[in-house]
Design a protein that fits this description.
Shape: globular
Strand content: over 45%
Low-confidence stretches: 1-28
InterPro entries: DUF4292 (IPR025634)
Largest sheet: 16 strands, mixed
Protein name: DUF4292 domain-containing protein
Distance between the termini: 13 Å
Number of helices: 4
Radius of gyration: 18 Å
Pfam families: DUF4292
Keywords: Signal
Structural class: mainly beta
Organism: Kaistella gelatinilytica
Order of helices and strands: HEHEEEEEEHHEEEEEEEEE
Amino acid sequence: MKKYILVLMTSAFLFSCKSKMATNAPIGTSNEIAANATFFSKIKERSDFQQLKINSKINIENGTFIPTLDATIYIENGQKVWMNMIAIFLNVGRGIATPDGIKGYEKWNKTYIESDFSYLNKLLNVNFIDYNSLQNLLLGKTFVPINEKDFILTKNAQGYRLTSSKNLKFENNGQTSEYSVIMDYSPDFDLSQVQLEDKNKTNQLEISYFNWTGFDNMKLPKNVKIIIKGTKTSQIFLENTRFESSKMDTPYSVPNNYTKTEIR
């Protein structure tokens, strides 16, 4: 269930294992920038599209065979993310996220979820994911909350790097977590990599974005790579093959005789 419901929602949140990653620093000399209003304005820009349809191929490597998944992702800006998945010509699952929470089902085990965003936060061992951060993650936009005073900005040959100057505290439902964060951007302010590590260095996550392309006054990543390391290593590769701006229907209903599942 976890493998497929989480692909439905973000394609990043496939596994509930503890995660650990390696830090890959950009090559070249870094120079600290005292202030850069243009940089922070650019990385915080809001998306202004109405709707976006993305055709994607998802490949997962986690030590067991999972066929390539053909996914249709449909986003209505600020309102919903809908996804349908097919494997070997068979529909295997569907999901939808709105500001109120997430829903999803998968056909192989006949299970479904209905949850607020605590489901995804528990799976990633974070507590700042909401609808807007989920949408931004899928679009390659900054999805980690940014307060300029909490970061050090440097510039090098590869572009820009934001490094948290102290552990960032995220509070939700009475729980507090602390993370160090590194985010790399191109000279054109495209997000290239996000790295999160908890204060105990036991939970880590890395997301990389490649091959940015222009579409309808937007820039979008054609490739996304997610690395999760823990008791086992999992890698997720998302290849966005086509972008469209046309409206589409987004039906969602859980079939009869499916079992609700909870994450523990």
